[in-house]
Amino acid sequence: MAMPTPTLRPLSCWKSLLRHARHQKVATRSLTTYHKSVTFSKYEIPTPGASIEVTRKIKTYPPPQSPAQKFKEPLKDFTKHQISILDPTGARTHLFSKTNPEAAKVGDILLVRLKTGDPFAGVCINIRRRGVDTGILLRNELTRVGVEMWYKIYSPNVEGIEVVQRREKRARRARLTYLRKPKHDMGSVQNIVLAYQRSRGAMRGSVQEKKGGKKGKGKKK
Amino acid sequence: MIQLKTMMNCIDNSGAAIVECVKVMKMKRHAKIGDRVIVVVQKQRNFSESGPGASVSTSAANKVRRGDIRHAVVVRTAKKLQRPDGSVVKFDDNACVLINKAGEPIGTRLNGVVGTELRKMKWSKILSLAPMHL
């Protein structure tokens, strides 16, 4: 006797499976109905897709001005500010400005009056233009020894800079370093400076004698 | 910038004309104005005013002789030296003044300008002898 077992007839399981599937399909179809939601609340709940109308306006502020726009050239502004502090009248800037035809140039004999110590005079052999750090190099001969001094023109230590004598012809070099060579050395300019000071003193003496006398005494000390 | 082997002018009347630096004292750098150095006298000064006939007197006037080892103070440098106020000073030569070990100058006169840094370094005796300081 042969038993009709599924092992013997492997395809027999298909029948029951397919039957089951058919039943399920019918069930799903019967359950699928068109559903319309009915709101029970008074207020309509907004659906996520719909746009929300805002009645209250939110206050907005404009962005702060960018420092990069406000201070376009900070170093330039800073230099200008410093010069305005150190040279309020602008006389020093004018004396060394390139646009001024009466400006001090290389080759001129300059006299630097200092707040502390003696004035120093010499031939200007270099003007280093660097904004507030602008400096001049003066060369002179003291007791037969060449001496060179750098002075910052905006230094608070510098009381005044005077042009003692101008060069007859414009120097065709920016830096007259050749004046250090024995062939070109101007030697001591002390005599020229003394003559200049005497003439200035005479001019000043005619106008205000008292002040000149006082100054002379101060220098002797 | 005074260091080993630097030749300097001696600007006092001790009798030395040219000296050579053999040691910078109290530091490992080069010497600047106002620093103390040890020097060897390389060339003696022969005073022109005494004339050729007074050679004996000149040698007697010379307090130092060639080959002597002495202390000295640098008073001028050809190297630029910046001051605290921003100004810079530079001389055309290197010069020094001979001193004894106590720090008093050997010579009695100086001829030539010296740097003002000597005041800061407390060499007031040299400053008072100098005809000019800058």
Automatic annotation (TrEMBL), chain A:
Q: Name one GO cellular component term.
A: mitochondrial large ribosomal subunit
Domain of life, per UniProt, equals Eukaryota
Per UniProt, the keywords (alphabetical) are: Ribonucleoprotein, Ribosomal protein
Ranges of Basic residues compositional bias? 212-221
Span list, region Disordered? 201-221
Report the record's Gene Ontology biological process terms.
translation
Q: Which InterPro entries match?
A: Ribosomal_bL19 (IPR001857), Ribosomal_bL19_sf (IPR038657), Translation_prot_SH3-like_sf (IPR008991)
Question: What GO annotations for molecular function exist for this entry?
Answer: structural constituent of ribosome
Instruction: Report whether Ribonucleoprotein shows up as a keyword of the record.
Output: yes
Cited Pfam families? Ribosomal_L19 (PF01245)
Q: Which PANTHER family match?
A: LARGE RIBOSOMAL SUBUNIT PROTEIN BL19M (PTHR15680:SF9), RIBOSOMAL PROTEIN L19 (PTHR15680)
Regarding protein family, the annotation reads:
Belongs to the bacterial ribosomal protein bL19 family.
Protein name per Swiss-Prot or TrEMBL: Mitochondrial ribosomal protein-like protein
From TrEMBL, chain B:
Q: Which family does it belong to?
A: Belongs to the universal ribosomal protein uL14 family.
Q: Any idea which GO molecular function terms this record carries?
A: large ribosomal subunit rRNA binding; structural constituent of ribosome
Concerning Pfam families, the annotation shows:
Ribosomal_L14
Q: Could you mention a single GO BP entry for this protein?
A: translation
Specify the protein name: Large ribosomal subunit protein uL14m
* HAMAP family named in the record: Ribosomal_uL14
Which PANTHER family does this entry report, sorted A to Z? 50S/60S RIBOSOMAL PROTEIN L14/L23, LARGE RIBOSOMAL SUBUNIT PROTEIN UL14M
Keywords in alphabetical order, please: Ribonucleoprotein, Ribosomal protein
What is the protein's known function?
Component of the mitochondrial ribosome (mitoribosome), a dedicated translation machinery responsible for the synthesis of mitochondrial genome-encoded proteins, including at least some of the essential transmembrane subunits of the mitochondrial respiratory chain. The mitoribosomes are attached to the mitochondrial inner membrane and translation products are cotranslationally integrated into the membrane.
| Cited InterPro entries | Ribosomal_uL14, Ribosomal_uL14_bac-type, Ribosomal_uL14_CS, Ribosomal_uL14_sf
GO cellular component terms given for this protein:
mitochondrial large ribosomal subunit
Species of origin reads: Mollisia scopiformis
